[in-house]
Write a structure and sequence with these properties.
- The chain is α/β, with parallel strands linked by helices and 694 residues long.
- Helix content is 34%, strand content 25%.
- Strands 22, 24, 26, 28, 29 and 30 form a six-stranded mixed β-sheet that branches. It has a five-stranded mixed β-sheet with strand order 3-11-10-6-7.
- Helix 4 (98-106) packs antiparallel against helix 12, helix 11 (380-387) runs antiparallel to helix 12 and helix 15 (488-505) runs antiparallel to helix 16.
- The relative contact order is 0.09.
Length: 694
């Protein structure tokens, strides 16, 4: 066909296809929709979807069976429509490279080439109706040019098509690649999971873990597959040290406790089959915090806490998995500081960031940094295909593209022994369990891929030749991963928030419950999961702040003005508790703001009932008259400051100042009266009067 004719055909297909037409290379894509036959597109619109391609890799003599559905979205019936399987004849499409695979997967419209299979549907497909089709491609392996490979195919009718691939092998002329997998088991970013007790929290946990939830689907999809589970300890709460989360003695009648322990049981029962990694508690965002100067203490605590969980699961807690997939020597140094117990034994990273500029071959999955750290580099393209197992149709296309992409990877160095590939799902992995199980089963049948474990991969990376990472300025981001929520400002506040909540819990009578609720919520602010929902982080942060502020503002010193008319004595200061629970172990510290008054002793430790007040005495000595503002501070046993600054004014009038002055005045008055009386009683003073009288 002339180039102009080809252009006209492709242009017509592009016009007929809607913007949302699905392709194997798109996350949304499982079906292709276009007009069939004559008439307007609205009258003859058709959608194709594949539901199966068996086998995933055909051996000599085997037929390929393609199954799918044709949906008539038009207003007229389709009479005996035909579905064909077309193999392109141009060398570019048949070239077995990763670029060629990607190009074919993303192209749209019918292909020009050889029809290798065809079927005609019996009867008519009514308007709005759906029909199933089966197409057989006989002796598929004989169609390939090489001894093994993947043939690009277009399943099409009229101008509607679905691009896919079919693997085959006539003879083994390669050294196989070992393949290992890792899938995170982490929670969704729902702030209600860690809010105050109530119906909202109970519902959030049910939505997060019940049958049909994303976490449940991931477990269902992978429980029989040879994948490593990377587990957030929040999903195994009773394996954490006592008091961190729900206790092992928590009542099973509590809906949250019941569903969380049920999920934990599912994980622990299957853990031995999944060489588990335990992520830092809460799945802490190591990528955001590794280079920061603050929150290091909190992060080290979260890292160390996972060690006990790993021991109980028979796994390991010494592999770092930063959410952005990035690696630099600077980050490695920062991660080593966080992983003190256990020490850092490896890091998961994107293979893309380790690609040497100018090379055409994909990086190996087992690598080692120049300082000796094992690096497990996941293949970005193959990992993305795993995430596309969201439905049966999407799973078929992702499976067949995985076959084609893996054989293209093999052909980069087909005769090299010891090669390996690592496939890692993102935290947002949300599969259809049946589609994912079919995907893993199909990949297990690929003859050039040999299953192995991440432990074997890690051991191989320890002995790899040290390779400097390519310069990284913008690390790759997992699908759905988003940008870090923990900015520098938030990181600096995070550790203080956790300390405040823990300190506040020490004075409340319901401190254990308060600590499990709000200290745990504060720690969860460090999680990677909030990258996918920044506003949810704000919601949870606001709830934690409000809970802590409720206590720190409810326990306070009452403002007052005190007249102190003595040289020494006691001042009475009132502390109020506006909470509905008692508080205890509250320490009041009083300081005079100037030297007119000396504080001789501090008041005893306070205990105040709910909605009550307590009056304490402070021993003081007056040194000079005048006004003395008192600085008061309420603290918890660990020094956390609570309460509000109170305006307590003391008017100091020492007794000595006015008593001595008064005595001097009285003495002077007595002396004056004595003089007057003495003068009035002199004899000479009365003679003139007597003489005058005589």
């Amino acid at each position: 066909m002339h180039r102009a004719s080809v252009c006209r055909v492709l242009l017509a297909a592009a016009i007929a296809l809607p913007l949302g037409a699905a392709t194997p290379g798109t996350a949304s894509g499982v079906a292709s929709r276009a007009g069939v036959g004559r008439g307007s597109a609205s009258a003859t619109s058709v959608a194709l979807a594949l539901t199966g391609m068996t086998p995933a890799v055909a051996l000599p003599g085997q037929d390929l069976v393609v199954t799918g559905t044709m949906r008539n979205d038009g207003s007229r019936p389709l009479n005996g429509p035909t579905v064909a399987v077309v193999m392109p004849t141009d060398d570019t499409s048949l070239r077995s490279t990763r670029e060629a695979v990607q190009n074919w997967a993303t192209e749209v419209g019918p292909a020009q080439g050889t029809v290798v299979g065809r079927t005609r549907l019996a009867g008519a497909v009514p308007a709005g109706g759906t029909a199933t089709f089966y197409v057989t491609v006989h002796r598929l392996a004989s169609l390939g040019r090489a001894a093994y490979g993947a043939i690009p195919l277009s399943v099409q009718t009229g101008t509607a098509s679905v691009r896919t691939f079919a693997g085959y092998q006539r003879t083994k002329q390669y050294e196989p690649i070992s393949i290992s997998w890792a899938v995170p088991l982490t929670l969704d970013p729902d702030p209600q999971l860690f809010g105050g007790p109530g119906a909202g929290r109970q519902k959030a946990w049910s939505d997060a873990l019940a049958d049909g939830s994303r976490v449940s689907r991931v477990i269902d999809a992978t429980q029989d597959a040879p994948v490593t589970w990377a587990i957030d300890p929040t999903l195994t709460p009773t394996l954490l040290q006592r008091g961190v989360d729900i206790g092992s003695s928590a009542a099973q009648s509590d809906p949250e406790t019941a569903i969380r322990t049920a999920t934990q049981t599912r994980i622990t029962d299957a853990a031995a089959r999944h060489t588990p990694w335990v992520l830092p508690d809460t799945d802490a965002d190591l990528a955001a915090v590794a280079g920061a100067s603050t929150a290091q203490s909190l992060m080290r605590t979260l890292v160390a806490r996972s060690q006990a969980v790993a021991q109980r699961l028979g796994g390991r807690a010494d592999v770092a998995w930063p959410a952005d997939g990035g690696y630099t020597l600077t980050r490695e140094t920062a991660l080593r500081r966080l992983f003190q117990q256990p020490a850092l034994a490896g890091q998961v990273t994107s293979a893309a960031v380790l690609t040497t500029p100018g090379t055409t071959n994909s990086p190996g999955s087992a690598q080692r940094s120049t300082t000796g750290l094992p690096l497990l580099a996941y293949d970005d393209a193959l990992s993305t295909l795993l995430t596309q197992t969201t439905s049966a149709s999407a799973g078929v296309l992702s499976t067949q593209q995985f076959v084609a992409d893996s054989v293209a990877l093999l052909n980069e160095l087909p005769g090299t022994q010891g090669r390996s590939v690592f496939v890692a799902a993102p935290r947002s992995f949300n599969p259809d369990p049946a589609a994912a199980r079919a995907f893993f089963a199909a990949v297990d049948s690929i003859p050039w891929l040999t299953p192995t474990t991440t432990d074997v991969l890690l051991a191989s990376a320890r002995h790899a030749v040290g390779t400097a990472a390519a310069p990284v300025t913008r690390p790759t981001v997992e699908p759905g991963g988003g940008q870090p929520v923990l900015t520098s400002a938030r990181i600096s506040q995070l550790e203080q928030t956790v300390r405040t909540v823990r300190g506040v819990a020490q004075i409340r009578d319901d401190g254990n419950e308060f600590l499990r609720t709000w200290a745990r919520a504060a720690e969860q602010l460090a999680s990677t999961r909030w990258r996918a929902a920044p506003t949810a982080w704000d919601t949870l942060s606001g709830g934690v702040t409000q809970a802590a502020r409720q206590t720190t503002t409810a326990v306070k010193v009452s403002a007052s003005t005190i007249n102190f008319l003595a040289d020494s004595g006691r001042l009475q200061i009132t502390v109020t508790n506006d909470l509905a629970v008692p508080v205890g172990n509250v320490k009041l510290t009083v300081e005079a703001s100037n030297l007119r008054l000396r504080i001789d002793s501090q008041p005893p430790i306070l205990r105040i009932g709910p909605k009550s007040r307590a009056t304490v005495s402070v021993s003081v000595t007056a040194l000079a008259a005048g006004s003395v503002p008192l600085r008061t501070r309420l603290t918890t046993p660990d020094g956390t400051v609570i309460g509000e600054g109170a305006d307590v004014q003391v008017r100091v009038t020492p007794t000595g100042n006015w008593v001595y002055g008064g005595l001097a005045a009285v003495g002077g008055l007595v002396l004056l009266l004595g003089i007057v009386r003495t003068v009035r009683r002199r004899p000479g003073a009365r003679l003139p009067r007597e003489a005058t009288t005589a």
